[in-house]
Amino acid sequence: MDLKEGDIIYILFMVLNKVEYLDDILNKLTELGITGGTIIDSTGMAESILCDEKIPTVGGLRALFEYCREGNKTIFTVIENKEKLEQAQEVIKGEICDFRDPGVGVSFAIPIQNTVGIPPKTKEVTDK
Length: 128
Fold this sequence. Notes:
The protein is an alpha+beta fold. It has a domain at 9-42 and 70-112: Alpha-Beta Plaits, CATH 3.30.70.120. 24% of the residues lie in helices and 23% in strands. The protein contains four helices and four strands; from the N terminus they run βαβααβαβ. The protein has a four-stranded antiparallel sheet with strand order 2-3-1-4. The longest helix has 10 residues, at 22-31.
């Protein structure tokens, strides 16, 4: 990325509940030229409350929660322009998986500016 002061870029957040899609999503993002990001092991608040046997819940509330997962992955990555953001969002709208399906994940993007520490893009990743 060749950023100048005042440039608007995007940060894309994805909370992936179906972690079996992680490698495919990362591979596709890399193919799109999105090669940097951070992946964090995470747990949803409802899951934490309802699946922890040590935390008391009201009545049969725990029984309403279908299953307790091992957790999820939160991915965030800075994206240089709206076109690339839209391409990345297509990956999670049916190309690899569909975040619109219940339980797959959630995603959102936020425009950001005045960043510090994001280096200019120096080379493209190729399949060599």
